[in-house]
Amino acid sequence: MARFLAVQLARIGDLAQTRRLLAGLWRQAEKTGGEVHLAVDLSLVPLARRLYPFAVVHGLPAHGAPGEAGMAAAAARVRDARPVFAALAEIAFDKVFLLNFSPLAMALGAMFPPEIQRGYRLHAGQADKDALLRLVFRLARDRRGAGINLADIWAHLDDDPLPPEAVNPPAAPKGGGLGVALAGRAARRSLPPDVLAPLVRTLFLATGATRVTLFGTKSQAGEARALLRRLDPAVREACDDATGATDLPGLFDALSGLDRLVTPDTGAMHLAAFCGVPVTAFFLSSAWSHETGPYGVGHTVWQHTTPCAPCLESAPCDKGLICLPPFADPGLLRCLAGAQKAVPPPGLVGLATDCDALGALCRPFCGEDPTRARREAMRAFLTRRLAGGAADGVDVLSGHDLAESLSLETDWVLPPAGRSLAGEW
User: Fold this and answer.
1) Are 13 and 292 in contact (CB under 8 A)?
2) Is this prediction's pTM over 0.90?
3) Which domain holds residue 332?
4) Shared domain check, 112 and 226
5) Same domain (yes/no): 143, 250
6) What is the mean pLDDT of each run of 10 residues along the chain (425 residues)?
7) Which residues of 163-191 are buried (b: 16+ CB within 10 A; e: fewer)?
8) How far is CA 222 from the centre of its chain?
């Protein structure tokens, strides 16, 4: 029987975005009475068990506090996790998927033969990665034109990925009103309360909602209060402030019953898409919908397209946050309200989520998308490379040019241990 291990040591959104890979592995394992194992950070074990009831979930100390005290506590948690490492080492896995490049993931990978590892791996004491990940790193030179969702990158590490349309259910209202995710981990990728309030009011009226629920961590309670002060009385009276009021499984349950979630690029967004709850997402700064947008059919993303987009999250902005003003423009409010002939302000494009042979994609439906042609050419190239097909209207010569610029001889002359040339290319 087949046994698989996926190591996903990142945070909530990444855990939800691993669904295509994990569900595809379960489809294979179920045929033989096999098993799918999933290693996550200790804090995400209860949520992982809710999201993936078919998986055997293992908790590892992947995240900790900074500083010497945090390092000491992390070291103690690693020592306490030795039984988990020992249990995993005893299992004869057919494939191990290392999805994160971190010291803990590499240490875990060292317990298994390199020929069964996918994604990142240790080979002869050296860190290595599959040809697909090497290609993805090259694509990162042109993030605007790359256009492949993170969930599809992970899924294509396996030879038999789940069809993209089978990953998340099509989005449809569930009856629980409007939800608002206040902010993500990166403040620059979130809308401040004075910009968010008119958008919430407009969507409240446009959707006919009678209830609004605010979601966030306990530390975001101040942002919730600031948002409530800026809302009209009728909208404010319909609001339920749930910031800091739920654990992660509780958040998942609350999101699963909504009619729509209004959100920046957050873990809550990915959980809502996981449940088939329609998402209206606002992407700015380093958030790029073609990489981490909501997966599935029926979501809407408003993506800023200023020339500096997407920026590097870790670098300070030297442009004065020029990506923010378009979200405060009345033109966006008219678009959200469904006004005829409404157009978004310059620097903003409306995108509808869909699926094709490669995976998730965002199709522009209003506004100017300056990198659409470049992105479509890249997706056609990736479709031939990963899905074994060709998109309609493909420029074959352009595909050859991309292959020349993105492929290196070492990708196929020296395949990783256990991978044939056909398996890699």
Assistant:
1) yes
2) yes
3) 178-355
4) no
5) no
6) 96 97 97 96 97 97 70 76 94 97 90 93 83 90 92 96 97 98 83 97 96 96 96 96 96 98 97 98 96 98 94 87 96 96 95 97 96 92 81 53 75 61 48
7) ebeebbeebebbebbbbbbbbbeeebbbb
8) 27
